[in-house]
Amino acid sequence: MAMSVTIKTPDEIEKMRVAGKLASRVLEMIEPHVKPGISTQELDHICHEYIVNELQAIPAPLNYRGFPKSICTSVNHQVCHGIPGDRMLKNGDILNIDITVIKDDFHGDTSKMFMIGKPTVLAQRLVDLTYEALSLGIQEVKPGVMLGDIGHKIQSFVEKNRCSVVREYCGHGIGRAFHEDPQVLHYGKPNTGMELQAGMTFTIEPMVNAGKRNVRLLPDGWTVVTKDHSLSAQWEHTVLVTDNGYEVLTLRSNESL
Ligand code: MF3
Ligand code: CO
Ligand code: CO
């Protein structure tokens, strides 16, 4: 699909700020509900009602290319795009909840990891290092930097820690459309790829596996899992390139990068 990178106007940036903030509020709202015994479809229901009724926004995943639910829930070895269902969360699970809302025609896209009960040492380490990878990627962002610099930073940090970066899915430009150009790869070489310009908005959303990087698509057509069944983690923010750096549009109130 031909689509060029959009540079947002000040008006559009303000709308992106609003959409990003609303998406982050969904993750804050759902946190106390994420406990052993709740199913992922119950989490979907709570988020759906909150987005529609409280935020007066639209859950972007619902019916997006046929996706049947309002949020993505990916548990343990599920990498991304997990479909909420009757699976009950249990002690030791790790869960990614990915929220995308549309407000006033603009999208905000963000995800975070949740630990159910007490995580294993391996799971805690994976989740923490994936957050660190996202943070390092974001800290690269400023005009003149290239996309390959971001990817390289993430990949080298992850691989130094003996984990792997998923290659088949990437971050993306975002605005009036859910997925715009450019593609934001979470691996790459310094000084390659598109140069960042103030006014660009895109996501960074590394998927990191505790084992090998290879993934498989389940027969449901959506859920992506690790081929070797190793644990996988992901964190996502929507970022604006500013004149001298970045602004994280989906920052949560208790979060600092
Ligand atoms: N929120 C995901 C992303 O970060 C995309 C989900 S598409 C869906 O790009 F259809 F699965 F919802
Ligand atoms: Co995204
Ligand atoms: Co997302």
What string gives the helices and strands in order? Answer: HHEEEEEHHEEEEEEEEEE
Mean pLDDT: 98
| Number of helical regions | 4
Give the ligands present: 2-amino-4-trifluoromethylsulfanyl-butyric acid, cobalt (II) ion
Radius of gyration based on Cα positions: 17 Å
Q: What percent of residues are in strands?
A: 15-25%
Unreliable stretches covering 5 or more consecutive residues: none
- The proportion of residues forming helix, as a percent range, comes to 25-40%
How many angstroms separate the termini? 34 Å
The number of distinct β-strands equals: 15
Q: What would you call the shape?
A: globular
Structure report:
By secondary structure, the protein is of the alpha+beta class. The strands form five sheets. Strands 1, 2, 4 and 5 form a four-stranded antiparallel sheet that branches. A three-stranded antiparallel sheet has the order 3-12-11, with no helix packed on it. Helix 3 runs antiparallel to helix 4. The mean pLDDT is 98. Bound molecules: 2-amino-4-trifluoromethylsulfanyl-butyric acid (MF3) and cobalt (II) ion (2 copies). The site of one cobalt (II) ion (CO) has 6 residues, from strand 4 and strand 5.
Summarize the structure.
The protein is an alpha+beta fold and 257 residues long. Helix content is 27%, strand content 25%. The two termini are 34 Å apart.
List the helices and strands and how they pair.
Blueprint: H1 10-30, H2 40-54, E1 58-59, E2 72-75, E3 78-80, E4 94-103, E5 106-115, H3 121-139, H4 147-160, E6 164-165, E7 171-173, E8 180-184, E9 201-204, E10 207-209, E11 215-217, E12 224-226, E13 232-234, E14 237-241, E15 246-248
Antiparallel strand pairs: 1-4, 2-4, 3-12, 4-5, 6-10, 7-8, 9-14, 10-13, 11-12, 14-15
Helix pairs in contact: 1-2, 3-4
